[in-house]
Each structure stands twice: as C-alpha cells, then as structure tokens.
Design brief:
122 residues, Rossmann fold, 3 helices, 5 strands, 36% strand
C-alpha cells in the first residue's frame, strides 16, 4: 500500500478557531475552553482511500503577533495551508496578506484555502 505524507499549515489570527477545528477533525471533540496556542501545536490524521494511505501533519500556528517571528522555521516543506478567519470579527485585508506571506515564505505557489469560522455564532 502506498503512503503519502502531507504537511498542512493551519494559520490565522488568534481566536479564529484553528485549534477547535483541528480537534474536531482529528478527535471529533469540541472544547469551548481552548486556550490560545503559543508558537505551534501539531496534529495528525491518517486517511486511506483507494488503497493509498495519506498522513496529514496538521501544523496549528499560533496567531499572536509576538510569536510570528518564530513561524518562518515551521512553514518549510508545507504542501498547503488553511487560513482561518473569524466571521464574527472580520480581519482587514492586510492581516490576511500577512498570513499569506508567512505561509508562502519558502514556496510562493503554496496552495492556500481561506476558511471562515464561527458562522454559527453570528
């Protein structure tokens, strides 16, 4: 059986719901008391499809500005990124572009998917 490993970045402002989304996806759990991620957290999810195993390494990048200088070290080798934003407090375009620049510092063509979160709270 073939096996592929994909490093996926999960980025966005602090409080956008990155950790909650990953916990729901990986463990099917939701914890309303999540604390802000300091630096980087790491999740894995393995999926088998058509006799091919895919291991997703999901890198939860903390959103606080004071930790952003550390993030350049963690984005190398990524195959894609999710850029989350909170629909209840829309970020400005410059904030989104800053995250795009962080994610693409080593690969200008890195695929990025914008994901609006917390629609159920609006």
């Amino acid at each position: 059986m073939k096996k592929y490993i994909f490093k996926i970045l999960v980025t966005g402002e602090g409080g956008a719901g990155k950790t909650s989304l990953l916990q729901r996806y990986v463990d099917d759990k939701f914890d309303e008391s999540n604390v802000l991620t300091v630096g980087v957290d790491f999740f894995t999810k393995e999926i088998t499809f058509d006799n091919v195993k895919c291991l997703f390494q999901l890198w939860d990048l903390g959103g606080q500005k004071r930790f952003r200088s550390l993030l350049n070290n963690f984005v190398m080798g990524a195959r894609g990124a999710l850029l989350l934003f909170d629909l209840t407090r829309m970020p400005n375009v410059n904030d989104i572009l800053e995250w795009v620049n962080i994610a693409r510092i080593h690969d200008l063509n890195l695929p990025i998917l914008l994901v609006g979160t917390k629609l159920d709270l609006d």
